[in-house]
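Hello support,

Our group uses your service weekly, and this is the first time we've seen a run hang past the timeout. The protein is Probable nicotinate-nucleotide adenylyltransferase. I'm not sure whether the cause is the sequence or the server load. Input pasted verbatim:
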Amino acid sequence: MRHIAIFGGTFDPIHNGHLRSAVEVREELAADELWLLPSNRPPLRDRPTASSEQRLAMVMAAVHGEPGVRVDARELLRDTPSYTVDTLSEIRAEVGEDIALTLVVGSDALNKLHQWHDWQRLLSLANILALGRPDYELQLDAAVADQLGKAACDKSQLGLQSRGGFCELKLVQLAISATDIRERLVGGQSVRYLLPDAVIDFINQQQLYRR
Ligand SMILES: Nc1ncnc2c1ncn2[C@@H]1O[C@H](COP(=O)(O)OP(=O)(O)OP(=O)(O)O)[C@@H](O)[C@H]1O
Ligand SMILES: O=C(O)c1ccc[n+]([C@@H]2O[C@H](COP(=O)([O-])O)[C@@H](O)[C@H]2O)c1
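Update from on-call engineer: The timeout came from a worker crash unrelated to the input. Re-ran successfully.
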C-alpha cells in the first residue's frame, strides 16, 4: 500500500529538529513520501513572526533535493485557521481510500491534542505517529490517551493500514526549537548548525527575527 507521512508545523523557522525527524520518519516507516505542511494560521498559538510566504520559502529551501520529501502549501491557500482535520479530509479526498496516511506529531503538540478542532475524527482519516522530543514527555489528556491507546500498534503496521493506527517513535531527539532560534537571533548569537545554511541565508537576506 502506498504510504504518505504528513508533518505539519508553524516552521517559524524550520530547523534541524524538524528535518532530522522528517528524514528518519520516512526511513523508519518506509513511507513513500513525507509531506511538510506549513500552517497558515496555527490554531493554538500567537501569530508567527515570519509571514506565510517567508515560512514556505524557508521550508522549500531546507528540503530542496531531499528524496521523498515534498512541501505541500495547501494550508497557506486557505484563509482560515489551519485545522488538521480539514487538511486531512482534503488530502484523503484527493489520494483516495486505499493509501496509508500517517500524521506525524511531536510530543509537545500531541499533549494538546484534546484542544484541536474535532480531534476525535483524526484517526478516521489517518494513522497518528507520536514523535519523541527532548524536554517534552508524552502526557496525554485522558480522553486522547484512551482513544490513542485503543489504536496502538507497531510502527510496521502503519504502512499496512490506511488509517486508525497509533504508534510512538523515539528518533534522534535533537533539543532544537524555533523559539530558541528566534531568541538567539534577536540576541545577535549564532544559529549555525541548528538549521540549514540555506535557511540562515534567507533569514539574513530578509532581516528576519531581528530586534
Ligand atoms: N526538535 C524537534 N524534534 C522533534 N519534533 C519536533 C522538534 N521541534 C518541533 N517538532 C515538532 O514539529 C512540529 C512543528 O513544530 P513547530 O513548527 O511548532 O516547531 P517548534 O520548534 O516547536 O516551534 P516553537 O518553538 O515556535 O513552538 C510539531 O509537531 C513539533 O512537536
Ligand atoms: O487542528 C487543530 O485544531 C490544530 C491545533 C493546533 C495545531 N495543529 C497542527 O499541529 C501542527 C503543529 O502545530 P504547532 O503549533 O506546534 O506548530 C500544525 O500542523 C498545526 O496546524 C492543529
